[in-house]
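Hi support team,

I submitted a single chain yesterday and got back a structure, but I'm not sure I'm reading the token output correctly. Could someone confirm the output below corresponds to the sequence I sent? I've pasted both exactly as they appear in my results page.

Thanks,
R.
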Amino acid sequence: MITLDELLASRDARHALQQQLLAEHPGHTLVCTTVVVPGSVKRNQQSLIVAHAAVEALRKAFGVDQWTERDRQQRFIERDLPTGYEVYLVTPTPLLEAKLMAVQIEDGHPLGRLFDIDVIDQQGAPVPRTAVGGEPRRCLVCNREARYCMRMRWHSQDDIWEAINQRIDAYVKSTFSLSQMSKAKLASAMPWRENEG
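Hi R., thanks for writing in. Yes, this is the structure output for that exact sequence:
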């Protein structure tokens, strides 16, 4: 379990690393990705499945696999922390083009609603989705605008986690061919469902 102090410290550390990367790569665009995980446990099997899916989507969209090994080491950073998985990508892609790509990933990927992909400007501020015509993010449970549900606390954490697990279950089942995976192996990929029959 992560305490509030630990969570706040991780945000400060994330901001500091963002500033460092912006200073080290002038003229480039910084993309910072985390996983949407409610509650005090920020790292579990579900969050890692989401994180790895986000990494794969980012690598594909920004062509990371075509970079040199040195560029990947310096400009594509993954951090697996108790406070949650973090990915930093420094790209020559222009700011708004990168934001549009981020919105397309968030809106188009099966787990995209669980990705939080920020594109950071030179002042260290995230570019809003509205800058590229993006719609507000929707609630995981009821599909209203997420900010209203968060502000009013309309849903319990159990309801939110059930919605998250449903999305991850569907993704795992579609990613792994059921014809090649036994029920036992499928269950091992989704241990959070083991007591549900």
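A quick pointer for reading it: The chain is about 45% helix and 15% strand. Let us know if anything else looks off.

Best,
Support desk
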